[in-house]
Write a structure and sequence with these properties.
The protein is an alpha/beta fold and 209 residues long. It has one domain (49-203): Vaccinia Virus protein VP39 (Rossmann fold, 3-Layer(aba) Sandwich), CATH 3.40.50. The protein contains 6 helices and 9 strands, in the order H-H-E-E-H-E-H-E-H-E-E-H-E-E-E. A hairpin with a 4-residue loop joins strand 7 and strand 8 (180-187). Helix 1 packs antiparallel against helix 2 (21-29) and helix 1 (2-13) crosses helix 3 (61-71). The relative contact order is 0.12.
């Protein structure tokens, strides 16, 4: 499978402009096929999302890389992930950051992802089953240097913005089922409450429920 990962990175990520060496390196290493149903493992490295069942999908590799690169992780950050899913994006973040807190609303998905990630040896993860719209409300954990949301609300939840540290970065798809835009929200350190917003392109995610 290593050759498939190498081709995935070279043909799907590098050719489309992903430049963060740390992101490219980790996506060469993480065994993506372990995060999809066994019957679909042969298509795990394709240039498309992979169905997980129950209406859930694993995002295509380019979208995982684009969202991760936009966070500009250097290694010491505390990251919040909304939507654990199968745990693939969680694993990518766990290698690139110091700590990852991840929230999943579906108990079965959360339990299987946690078991998979612990089996793979990840120790810098905190898991929660609950409503992603409210983020990670425990005061001892917030604020977060970066937040990645892998499901689409129609508007950015106020709670997620509030849980960002000064200069923190939030990557989130915004919109309904027909049209969504991936957005990067950067907290303005000068004002403490203002945000700069940049659109990263059209996407298609499951709704944030």
């Amino acid at each position: 499978m290593a050759d498939r990962r190498a081709r995935m990175v070279d043909e799907q990520l590098v050719r489309r402009g992903i430049r963060d060496k740390r992101v490219l390196d980790v996506m060469r290493r993480i065994e993506r096929h372990r995060f999809v149903p066994e019957a679909r493992s042969h298509i795990a490295y394709g240039d498309f999302p992979v169905a997980l069942g129950g209406g859930q999908t694993l995002s295509q590799p380019y979208i995982v890389a684009l969202m991760t690169e936009a966070l500009e992780l250097e290694g010491g950050e505390k990251v919040l992930e909304i939507g654990t899913g199968s745990g693939y994006q969680t694993a990518v973040l766990a290698v690139l950051a110091n700590t990852v807190c991840t929230v999943e609303i579906k108990l079965e998905l959360a339990c299987s992802a946690r078991a998979r990630l612990e089996e793979m040896g990840f120790e810098n993860l905190n898991f929660k089953v609950g409503d992603g719209k409210v983020g990670w409300a425990d005061e001892d954990d917030a604020p977060f240097d970066a937040i990645l949301c892998a499901a689409a609300p129609r508007l950015v939840p106020h709670e997620l913005r509030e849980q960002l540290a000064p200069t923190g970065r939030l990557v989130i798809p915004i919109g309904g089922t027909e049209e969504q835009q991936l957005e990067l929200h950067i907290r303005d350190a000068a004002s403490g409450s203002g945000f700069r917003v940049r659109r990263l392109g059209g996407v298609r995610f499951v709704p944030l429920v």
